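Input.
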Amino acid sequence: MNAKQGRETTATMDAGFLPPITAPVHGSTRYLRSQVEVSDGILRWETPAALFGVVPIGTRKTEIPVSAVATLTVRRTVQPLRLALGLAWVVIPLLLGQWWWAVPSTMFGVWVVAISLGPQLEVTTTQGVIRRAPFCFSHRFDAELYAEVVLDIAEDVRNRA
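Output.
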């Protein structure tokens, strides 16, 4: 085996596999976890589908070829629908005079609002398709490092093609 064959083998192995990263969606919802991995040259992630960002109702799976990844970043985003629903859980009982319901409703509403403000791992494909996976604030650095490695692998795969 010459040096060129050795480099090709290493690049193929790197492009084919990257250990998964699993992190909670939010610090207060540790039972909801996002998982991202690179396997067989495909970026795969599984994120929980959740009602109000709190109640799990299933999972969403996304698969994108690594060569099609244009950008992968961690962004702090606001999810407007969840934010509006959380605020509604706080305001509606107060407007209706339902004081007995106001305390638990306010606690739930504040929880939903806090979850709607978390960071997300965002991938943009070369075709312009955008996919997002929520990540906990405390795992943001891990997600940023993972994104850097995936972008390096994607660039390497595109350069070899």
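The beta strands are 17-26, 29-39, 42-51, 55-65, 69-76, 119-125, 130-134.
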